[in-house]
Amino acid sequence: MSYAIGQRWLSHADSELGLGIVVELDGRRVSVHFPAVEEERTYATDNAPLTRVKLREGDALHTRDGRKLQVLAVHEEQELLIYEVAGEGQRELLAELDLDDHIDLATPRQRLLASQYDGHAAFALRMATAEHLHRLQQSGLRGLLGTRTALLPHQLYVANEVGKRHAPRVLLADEVGLGKTIEAGMILHRQLLSGDSRRVLIMVPASLQFQWLVEMRRRFNLQFALFDDDRLMESGEGSNPFEDEQLVLCSTDLFLDPTARALALDAEWDMLIVDEVHRLAWHRDSVSDEFRFLESMAAQIPGLLLLTATPEQVGLEAHFARLALLDPERFHDFAAFEEEESQYKRWSSLTDALDRGEKPQGLPADIDPEAAPERQVAALLDRYGTGRVLFRNARASVGGFPTREMQPHPLPAVDSPVYQHLYPDLHVDTEQWLQEDPRVAWLVSQLKALRPEKVLVICAKADTALALESYLQLRAGIRSAAFHEQLSLVERDRAAAYFAEQEQGAQALICSEIGGEGRNFQFAQHLILFDLPEHPDQLEQRIGRLDRIGQKERIFIHVPYIEGSAQETLMRWYHEGIDLFRSSCSAGDMILGEFKESLEEQLREQNGAFEALLRDTADFTERARKELSEGRDKLLERSSCNAEQGQALGTAISDIEDPDTLGAFLRELCDVTGVEHEDLGDSSSVLRRGEQELLEIFPEVPEDGCTVTVSRDEALAREDWIFLGWEHPWMENAMTTVLGSALGQASVGAMKLKGVPGGSRLYELLFTVSLSAPRALGLQRYLPLAPQRILLDASGRDLSKLLTHERLNERVEKVPRGTVSKIVRQLREEIETRIDDAEAQFAGELETRQKEAAQRYGEQMDEEIARLSALRAVNPAIREEEIENLRLRKEAGLVALGTARSTLQGVRLVITR
């Protein structure tokens, strides 16, 4: 393809963009501005999904100022087209820049009159494609379909609630194992597909980079560019590498470099996602450079998602500082925040009383005391809950988790004071402790006894993990892999994959502490804690690698310890004091803060006060759990998930996805366009590129083919298969390519119809609504594609209700091509008249639909604006920016709805015999 600035091109991958203008060239990339939707897209020049617009003599030309002219001649000057046109009795010259941004080319009318037609299967495919796209546009579930995730109510609720907001700014703080990464991915997926976000930066700990990269690609079909020091060095002087990619993923450590920080701040972003945000140190007297950088980024990026399983780790003030990143106006006074937190228990008690059917005293004055209890509860959560900025689902409320079984393994004491320490391996030579430490021999014996079960082994330090893995491989003959911070990211990913392989993979994965964060190993049931971490939250993170939602089996937690050592002391404190091995606890940081000094004293040298410490810890833990359950945590859980809404979303998604419907449509797509497919069952097939494809709908299919499934269940079970859901980029591209192409626009056939004399004509026409507007306005729900079939006879009578498309499609037969040309020439005037009649009929209906859509859209926007404005008076977590954005969207949406036009998608002429 040859490009020049000023040329007009159409995107055949997304025809709703309208007619684009080439605005920039840099050799390998071309940037095209689409004025109809005010969007700019950048493509690789060698495979851009673009078609050059070149009108021919005799074609109709529509100008930007609304004139319709006839092309008399076409000239080319410096790679740009100049049209000589006739209009209003005179000739004039128009540059291609003057073409209407909403131009339609290769219309069905033109193709039929030129006897350029396709088979009936192609026409039927066009009809089916329009109907499926219409159904998807109306669903209101855009962004939630086709992700390779289980339909869990709490995740769907959070993704829907946050994903539909303009520039959402929230803290996702679900307890370990509930899927914060999936929630973030679903929110992001929805934001990208709706057009609310385009440029996204994800910052994660170095150990989680590849997991996030793979999760975004495998679950959400999002292709992130992985940035590191080398990628930054590749860019030329004066350029900003962050501006070369739309979706960027990098380690938080990358921004220890001031140059990287400056480049990131200089780039424009729509959304920032930060995982494990509690690692960015903040203290009242000492704020880390990383946190300062995050403050600067958060101040200039509209959307912000922060993720942590321990929102109040290192204290309430640090938690407040992270909330201030989301909304500094809302969270500007720590004392006021503390006072607000103290009121949550009151609101929680009120909601409990309303749930019991009671009429509690003390309802806020702005809540109707006579309203239904469920509306009163909803009002309380709207006004006083923290769900607008903080979402925290608890394992106890979500359910579906396996039972934990703790198995202590006491080992005989060693005649050396070194082995009284928590981590004796740090105090002696590696070879010495491998020989002397009884935990090593026990580990070998235990792994052999558990064969062929998968076993995750976690220890505190990388050197310990490295030594153990080498010992198991070389001396014990146990297949194992190491996972620690001294390995490269690629090496860690390979180790995790080797462990996940069922038949020939490693039996054991030996991890340092980083293996206890972020990674998911639900396929294993056995966890061996070779040592114990010094913080309860770290222990919870370790257990959470296996004890996650989706885990189907009981979890066995093995704890070897040397009798009489600090290891036994810490094990008993966790087990008897907090009961942390058997049940999750979100108050770990609070408990440790209360007993840290006493515990450290016992770890140094256990004395008679240890039993009292265990009793005091158990009492304090019980009170803390009860307080959190009755107070803020309970209210927060209510606002973090509406189970009924979450379940309803899951049901609606299942109904729309329907593997039978999707599978039948996929087969129809492949059959008509020439893509080879081999069915493997009702829901899966192998796709291969066909030698004679009529239309390139799946350009990404590799040369040797690939296996796809349209079943969510199969996709979750077979992660090596492609989940080709409705919103998969391949499927979306295929449908927009069909409607954006000439395939099936015109067809001619013959049929026998009882009671109808031979030689009668039927005109079957398909119309849709064309609405060129930014996706972020969400107008397709109000004025969707709305395909309408009109069936006219030769005299213009509408027979649509008498003869269905399906019945006609079953009976219609081919007509010899030579005969078609003769028929079309003879019927040219009638064809033009019938198409004009149908266009006039649909235009009238479109006007009615536009008015109805504008009324519904305006009313719903006004209702939401009024609701948020009223709530803002009592809940400052609602930002004025959100309300103002709704006002602007309403105004822009109403204007855009008025520009909708009818589009003739296809016409079929049928002659009776």
From TrEMBL:
Q: Which family does it belong to?
A: Belongs to the SNF2/RAD54 helicase family. RapA subfamily.
Q: Where is this motif: DEAH box?
A: 275-278
Alphabetically sorted, this entry's keywords are: Activator, ATP-binding, Coiled coil, DNA-binding, Helicase, Hydrolase, Nucleotide-binding, Transcription, Transcription regulation
Per its UniProt record, what CDD domains does this chain match? DEXDc_RapA (cd18011), SF2_C_SNF (cd18793)
Q: What is its EC number?
A: 3.6.4.-
- Name the UniProt record assigns to this protein: RNA polymerase-associated protein RapA
Q: Name one GO molecular function term.
A: DNA binding
Gene name, per UniProt, is rapA
Q: Which species is the source of this protein? A: Congregibacter litoralis KT71
Pfam families registered for this protein in UniProt = Helicase_C (PF00271), RapA_C (PF12137), SNF2-rel_dom (PF00176), Tudor_1_RapA (PF18339), Tudor_RapA (PF18337)
Q: Which GO terms describe its biological process?
A: regulation of DNA-templated transcription
Which SMART domains does the record associate with it?
Answer: DEXDc, HELICc
